[in-house]
């Protein structure tokens, strides 16, 4: 942690553990703790901020419950790495013919540098006529298409991504963004809607034009909240399901 002043900020009427949790959350959101990095121990936090170990333990537990931190038995507490592809399993049943859950294969069909559509440039915080890396990608299970994706990246920060042969990218893009371009995705906003499949979507998903599809729009963000990737995924409505827990 970069602080030198151990005085906790925030409303003094709040419990100490909550003020500490707020402080640690700010450190994570500002990128001073990176995803996958080990968090300071409860003992260190207690000594640094001159608080009881139990108070530090409560603050850490709060951030674990929020999903910002995760504990590993025998190893410690770490800043959680987001698992974005798992979010698709909340909405679509990706199973092979035997009924087993499967991570879809990723196949890039097309990749080029092109002017961004206005709505994409606006979402990524770029000006009109900004250049981007445009991708068409298909997700498949057992050779059968399950998702058709349109993806845009800012051309400058992701220039090195163009040097990777499309056949070597693999099923998960975010680890490649990090290793090849130094761009780490830490959060994302998603919105769902339904529409009728257009001719191109129908061709890619091997369904009838006009058949219902579910659309997931995602804006992925880096450290500090800067937008890094715009993505639109279309999947067959007959594979869609929605569950939630209300308390």
From TrEMBL:
UniProt xrefs under Pfam families: GntR, UTRA
Assigned keywords, A-Z: DNA-binding, Transcription, Transcription regulation
InterPro entries cross-referenced by the UniProt entry: Bact_HTH_transcr_reg, Chorismate_lyase_/UTRA_dom_sf, Tscrpt_reg_HTH_GntR, UTRA, WH-like_DNA-bd_sf, WH_DNA-bd_sf
Superkingdom in the source lineage: Bacteria
Domain HTH gntR-type: 14-82
PANTHER family listed in its UniProt record: MANNOSYL-D-GLYCERATE TRANSPORT/METABOLISM SYSTEM REPRESSOR MNGR-RELATED, MANNOSYL-D-GLYCERATE TRANSPORT_METABOLISM SYSTEM REPRESSOR MNGR-RELATED
Name this protein carries in UniProt: GntR family transcriptional regulator
Lineage: Bacteria, Pseudomonadati, Pseudomonadota, Alphaproteobacteria, Rhodobacterales
């Amino acid at each position: 942690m970069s602080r030198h002043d151990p005085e906790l900020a925030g409303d003094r009427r709040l419990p100490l553990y909550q003020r500490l949790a707020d402080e640690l959350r700010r450190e994570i959101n500002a990128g001073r703790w990176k995803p996958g990095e080990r968090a300071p121990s409860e003992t260190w936090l207690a000594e640094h901020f001159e608080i009881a170990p139990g108070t530090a333990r409560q603050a850490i537990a709060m951030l674990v419950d929020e999903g910002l931190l995760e504990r590993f038995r025998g190893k410690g507490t770490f800043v959680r790495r987001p698992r974005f592809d798992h979010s698709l399993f909340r909405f679509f049943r990706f199973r092979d013919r035997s009924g087993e859950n499967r991570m879809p294969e990723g196949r890039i069909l097309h990749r080029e540098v092109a002017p961004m559509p206005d709505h994409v440039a606006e979402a990524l915080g770029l000006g009109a006529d900004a250049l981007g890396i445009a991708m068409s990608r298909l997700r498949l299970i057992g050779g059968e298409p399950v998702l058709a994706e349109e993806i845009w990246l800012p051309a400058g920060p992701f220039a090195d991504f163009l040097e990777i042969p499309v056949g070597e990218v693999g099923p998960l893009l975010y680890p490649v963004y990090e290793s090849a371009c130094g761009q780490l995705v830490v959060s994302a906003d998603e919105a769902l809607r339904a529409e009728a499949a257009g001719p191109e979507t129908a061709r890619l998903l091997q369904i009838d034009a006009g058949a219902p599809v579910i659309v997931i729009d995602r804006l992925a963000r880096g450290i500090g909240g800067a937008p890094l990737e715009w993505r639109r995924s279309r999947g067959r409505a007959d594979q869609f399901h929605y569950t939630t827990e209300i308390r």
